[in-house]
Amino acid sequence: MKTSTLVYQLPGARWRLLFGENVLRTLRSHVQRNSSSRESVGQLYSRDLTSDCIVVEQATVLTPTWAAWARVQFDPKRAATEREEKFKNGLHCLGLWHTHPEPLPNPSPEDKALARDHALSAKGQLTGLVFAIIGTRSMPAGLRVWIDDGEVLRLAESTSQNVVLP
Ligand SMILES: [Zn+2]
Q: Quick one: pLDDT at residue 62?
């Protein structure tokens, strides 16, 4: 049994967020499986923000300016340049992903501030900024997704609409 896509939804929200297979493969390849691992970070992109089912089509990996077992930093200018390049190819940035060395990840105070910053700067283009953290537990449990609308950071639920291939 292999999960090919995962769907997340905010309680009561009409729209859903679907993580495509190639995106999940990228995220899985960065799971922190041992104590010598470091956190990774990147951005999430979609071609269509108007659909009720927003498909995360690409997950990029940013070169960290600094990375440790339980902390990572990236260059916001480099991230902005990447967004401009992707936008030229019709891809909109939905938000950020990074890894945590814990089974069921939770955002640190620093993570929450980062999500809020990005949510506020994306206001008008996005309903909410997607903030995904990949823990060490296998997916879907290990992939936790929050949406920050600029005021509140809300945990999205992994729905039962996951497509399972034999
Ligand atoms: Zn974090």
A: 95
Closest CA to 62 of 106, 93, 35, 34: 93
User: Where along the chain do its domains lie?
Assistant: 2-161
Q: Kind and range of the H or E element at 35?
A: none
Give me ligand 1 centre to Cα 74, in Å: 12
φ/ψ of residue 86, rounded to 5:
-65, -35
Res 66: pLDDT = 85
Q: Does domain 2-161 have CATH number 3.40.140.10?
A: yes
Expressed in angstroms and rounded, the spacing between residue 105 Cα and the centre of ligand 1 is 8
What's the 107 CA to ligand 1 centre distance in angstroms?
Answer: 5
- pLDDT 10s digits, 20-43: 999 999 999 999 999 999 999 999
Beta strand 64-68 pairing with 58-59: unpaired
Distance (angstroms) between ligand 1 centre and the Cα of 64 equals 13
80-116 residue pLDDT tens: 999 999 999 999 999 999 999 999 999 999 999 999 9
| Ligand 1 geometric centre to CA of 83 (Å) | 21
CA of 165 to the centre of ligand 1 (A): 31
